[in-house]
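ARCHIVE CARD
Drawer: 12
Card no.: 0347
Subject: one protein chain, sequence and derived structure
Cross-reference: see card 0346
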Amino acid sequence: MKRLWLALAIFNLQAAFASESVIRLGVVNVYAHGLAVGASSVFDQSLIITDYPNARVSFKADFNSTDDFYAALGDRLGATVSSFESAHVIRPACSTNLQPETLVPPLSEKSVTFNFNRVPVAGLLEVVAKESGLPIDSGQISVEHRTVGLRLHRFTWRRAYQVVLHATGASLVKQGADYRVLGGDAQSSCLRPTTPETGAPSPTKCPMMEHPLVKKIGKPVVCEPLEAYPLPELVVRGFMTFNATRFVLLEASDRNTFFVKIGDYLGHHFGKIAAVDDEGFVVREIMEDSDGMYYFAKTSISYDNKRTELSREYP
């Protein structure tokens, strides 16, 4: 009897876990490129999204798998979602000239990781061509004003180049001793050239990294991405729960988006996320008062961007 009871208890527990959603998402007015790339980083997956540089989306939904999330995002954008070289590909449904049989570029097998919310296609192809040391001319591809967001984790240069060509509907051909990129589905009537909206210039350094407190508080002397931005310039766009971990989605003044969690650093005052819950998150910073004394300040930031000072504590 005890064994039967135990078996039923285990079955009910497994059913309860199976019924829980893997992903819970609540975001408002966030750039689609940033959401897709940020989510793929959380999922530890590779992805490329093309031609939606200015599209914003809102979601309040649960998903049972990462594939369900990508499919829902594709539906919201009117895009197709496929897979190529182990990367998810999100591209306009009206795109044409998908050419997976393109010439395999003779590029390095060295691993590389790309992680961009948005980057011009032409510039990305030029970077890869420069790394290869080969004469690759991308002048024939219709890439003007085309933008992609991508996260390709530990891809070889060759595979990364193939994914970009595939997603943009282009081909690599050899003409004599040179290689040339041809085609590109931007020629399709449905894809109008779009100039991406511009935000503030991206910061180039973390101003607090040389502060004498860095070593005293035991912080790694490494600039995390969000430490380049002042905290007031970060806008909360929502949250995502994935495998029981809650992430907060932040948008910076330069339009880049980031998923952050407990323990991550942000802002110019050694800000560290101390808690995340259903209302928002709490950040602890080291501030300096008018007498030159340092203190710990805790601030709560809600999902609708209301900021409340919780405490000040002098060490």
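Annotation on reverse: Residues 9 and 48 are 43 Å apart (CA to CA). Helices lie at 2-19, 32-43, 66-77, 121-132, 157-168, 213-216.
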